[in-house]
Backbone:
């Protein structure tokens, strides 16, 4: 069960933007925080010491993928997910609900849980709220998610309401299972659902607050609704969540998404974008995105960002990176994924500094203008 070794401290606010700390037995998570995604017990194409050196305080592990391969029981026998992957800092695991929606060949939702076929070998599996929590506890993650139903948007009101109410009932069952399976210092977050409807989002938030979780996630966004709608939903949802507990926006997103969401009061994020973009030749810099595959970089001797002292930004020319990507050399994807991992952590650190110094509004305006650039050094 959760005890005093898990806590959230709100240190300062600048407008709605929040500076804080999530305290866990394995370390402090500075917020706003971005969690690199370690889907299958690895952050793709990046060494974990590079992730730690970049400044990440926490990683995300994926319940769906790990339960299918190598299996939660096997990871538990091998000492838990931290030992298995060689990461001593906190780990957050999702519930598997999103992957059931997006990856499974055949899925059927019922009051009992989600029935689906493994995308690996077609094995039929039933994932219940209780089993999801049991898996996460076997993995040994520090922060866990309730099982919820995530639907694609746009969707009819009736479908959004059905999924929201089912997720609320599953939240209560998840908490009961967490009491049974969890270890001291672990925490379970509830997930706000309700699609794009403000009334449903409010009902979901209020229902979860009544169940009482140590943290709350906003799920079901970044699934096709667009940034404007996503930000509106955040503005309508966050006031109904306790200010004294962390707020986690799941699966988001671009640097601009992170900045705008922090401006509205979000504390934690995760997304595959930094490493997925790196593997496909896209780098994020303070002067905008750089598509290193573009032919204009083939004879460009400049580094990705001459203003940066970080190795992947200053030690490799754009021409060399263009060559690696065009030649399909693994090193190209590794360097760009490393660079993006660093950039995302630098972005969060800059936001924390701006909030601490009461200059977030000015910083936000200036940074969004820079990020709209074409990646050319100033």
Residues:
């Amino acid at each position: 069960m959760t005890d005093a070794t898990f806590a959230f401290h709100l240190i300062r606010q600048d407008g709605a933007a929040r500076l804080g700390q999530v305290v866990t037995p394995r370390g402090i998570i500075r917020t706003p925080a971005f969690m690199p995604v370690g889907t299958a017990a690895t952050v793709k194409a990046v060494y974990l010491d590079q992730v730690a050196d970049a400044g990440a305080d926490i990683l995300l592990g994926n319940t769906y993928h790990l339960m299918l391969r190598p299996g939660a029981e096997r990871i538990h026998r091998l000492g838990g997910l931290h030992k298995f992957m060689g990461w001593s800092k906190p780990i957050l695991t999702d519930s598997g609900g999103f992957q059931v929606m997006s990856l499974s060949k055949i899925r059927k939702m019922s009051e009992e849980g989600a029935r689906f076929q493994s995308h690996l070998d077609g094995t039929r599996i039933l994932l219940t709220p209780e089993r999801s929590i049991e898996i996460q506890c076997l993995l040994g993650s520090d922060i866990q998610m309730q099982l919820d139903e995530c639907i694609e948007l746009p969707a009819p009101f009736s479908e959004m309401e059905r999924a929201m109410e089912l997720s609320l009932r599953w939240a209560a069952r998840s908490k009961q299972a967490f009491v049974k399976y969890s270890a001291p210092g672990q925490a379970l977050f509830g997930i706000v659902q309700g699609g794009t409807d403000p009334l449903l989002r409010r009902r979901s938030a209020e229902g979860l607050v009544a169940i009482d979780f140590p943290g709350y996630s906003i799920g079901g966004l970044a699934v096709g609704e667009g940034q404007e709608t996503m930000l509106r939903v955040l503005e309508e949802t966050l006031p109904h969540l306790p200010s004294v507990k962390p707020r986690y926006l799941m699966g988001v997103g671009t640097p601009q998404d992170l900045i705008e969401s922090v401006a509205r009061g979000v504390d934690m994020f995760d997304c595959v974008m930094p490493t997925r973009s790196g593997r496909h030749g896209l780098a994020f810099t303070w002067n905008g995105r750089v598509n290193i595959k573009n032919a204009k970089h083939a004879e460009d001797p400049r580094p990705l960002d001459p203003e940066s002292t970080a190795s992947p930004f200053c030690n490799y020319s754009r021409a060399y990176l263009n060559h690696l990507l065009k030649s399909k050399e693994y090193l190209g994807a590794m360097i760009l994924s490393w660079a993006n991992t660093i950039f995302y952590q630098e972005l969060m650190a800059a936001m924390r500094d701006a909030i601490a110094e009461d200059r977030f509004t000015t910083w936000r305006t200036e940074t969004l203008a820079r990020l709209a650039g074409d990646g050319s050094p100033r």
Notes: The first strand starts at residue 7 and ends at 14. The mean pLDDT is 96. The first helix runs from residue 48 to 54. DSSP finds 15 helices and 16 strands in the chain.
